[in-house]
Amino acid sequence: MTAGEGAARVPDVGALVVDVRRDRIGEVMAFADGRLALRPPVGGREWEAFPCDVRPATVSDGLRVKVTEVNDRSRRERGLS
Questions:
Q1: Which of 2, 5, 12, 59 is 20 to 30 A off residue 77, Cα-Cα?
Q2: What is the distance between the alpha carbons of residues 54 and 37, in angstroms, rounded to a whole number?
Q3: What's the chain's average pLDDT?
């Protein structure tokens, strides 16, 4: 993460973060006009968040993403979704 004097820390592009307002994990795709463009790590629709509304993802957060992806794949293979 980079830091500005007195400003919210802005994560680097490619960083995995948690949007605490939405309780969603996202990968930072861009930073423009004071907002972050985030996308789910497994793909999907982007959303925007302010840097003050995100925190770095922990190892546990990363595992949550992987478990969700495996569960979704299993449901698709069994025709449940």
A1: 59
A2: 11
A3: 89
Query: Residue 17 has which token pair?
Result: 């973060």
Instruction: State how far the Cα of 47 lies from the Cα of 39, in Å rounded to an integer.
Output: 6
Nearby residues of 57 by Cβ (< 8 Å), 6 or more positions away: 15, 16, 17, 18, 25
Please report, for the chain, the start and end positions of each structural domain, with discontinuous segments joined by +: 16-77
Whole-angstrom distance, CA of residue 70 vs CA of residue 47: 23
Query: What phi-psi label fits residue 3: left (phi over 0), alpha (psi between -120 and 50 degrees) or beta?
Result: beta
- Average pLDDT for 18-30: 97
Is the Cβ–Cβ distance between 56 and 17 less than 8 Å?
yes
List of long-range contacts for 45-53, beta carbons under 8 Å, 24+ apart: 47/19, 47/22, 49/19, 49/21, 49/22, 50/8, 51/7, 51/8, 51/9, 51/10, 51/11, 52/8, 53/19, 53/20, 53/21
